[in-house]
Design brief:
The complex is a heterodimer of chains A (about 110) and B (about 110). Chain A has about 110 residues and is mainly beta. Chain A contains no helices and eleven strands. The chains are: A mainly beta (about 110), B mainly beta (about 110).
Chain lengths: ~110, ~110
């Protein structure tokens, strides 16, 4: 049972445009959400997170939006840069719990 | 200095063998994890240790035995390796028992 889903396995965006990566979850108990970025042959690196008490969190070019009623979150990257080409994983947990449940990832390719 | 390191990076072995993967973190974190990323790129938690105490054990076959000699190290020993054990294994650590986790570069295990 996959509780965190990223339905788009890949996404291509032109450099300078906005990249929007989507994530859906089924467990309404999840209250903390994270995005990780992964380059080939490297481990995932933390990007940005959001608590369920917020609906938006921004860090530079990266913004995460949370829609609790729809059980949906999205990561916006603007403007997209070639170095953003990577696999992006969303993850969810209960705050205070060590267990992160990951989605299967979306491969983002930024076209110069 | 690498924050979370794993050795070896690649491991090729035959079915039935016993192997170990080592993980060390120099971040002073209290909690460490082992994840498995299978051929479908699904990243799933296997174990979590907090201050050398096992916190999470996610229905992993008992051929897998984690060992934490101290807070900075979490090793994974696998007995009687099977073809299905082929995957990339990631070690991670976090300061608190939730939230941002720092991942190692991964160990690609191939069982032939």
């Amino acid at each position: 049972d996959q509780q965190v889903k990223q339905n788009s396995p890949s996404l291509s965006v032109q450099e300078g445009r906005i990249s929007i990566l989507n994530c859906d979850y089924t467990n309404s108990m999840f209250d903390y959400f994270l995005w990780y970025k992964k380059y080939p042959a490297e481990g995932p690196t933390f990007l940005i997170s959001i608590s369920s008490i917020k609906d938006k969190n921004e860090d530079g070019r990266f913004t995460v939006f949370l829609n609790k009623s729809a059980k949906h979150l999205s990561l916006h990257i603007v403007p997209s840069q070639p170095g953003d080409s990577a696999v992006y994983f969303c993850a969810a947990t209960l705050f205070g719990n060590e267990k992160l449940t990951f989605g299967t990832g979306t491969r983002l390719t930024i076209i110069p | 200095d690498t924050a979370v390191s794993q050795t070896p990076k690649y491991l090729v072995t035959q079915m039935g063998n016993d192997k170990s993967i080592k993980c060390e973190q120099n971040l002073g974190h209290d909690t460490m994890y082992w994840y498995k990323q299978d051929s479908k790129k699904f990243l799933k938690i296997m174990f979590s240790y907090n201050n050398k105490e096992l916190i999470i054990n996610e229905t992993v076959p008992n051929r897998f035995s984690p060992k934490s000699p101290d807070k900075a190290h979490l090793n994974l020993h696998i007995n009687s390796l099977e073809l299905g054990d082929s995957a990339v294994y990631f070690c991670a650590s976090s300061q608190e028992r939730a939230g941002e986790q720092y991942f190692g570069p991964g160990t690609r295990l191939t069982v032939t």
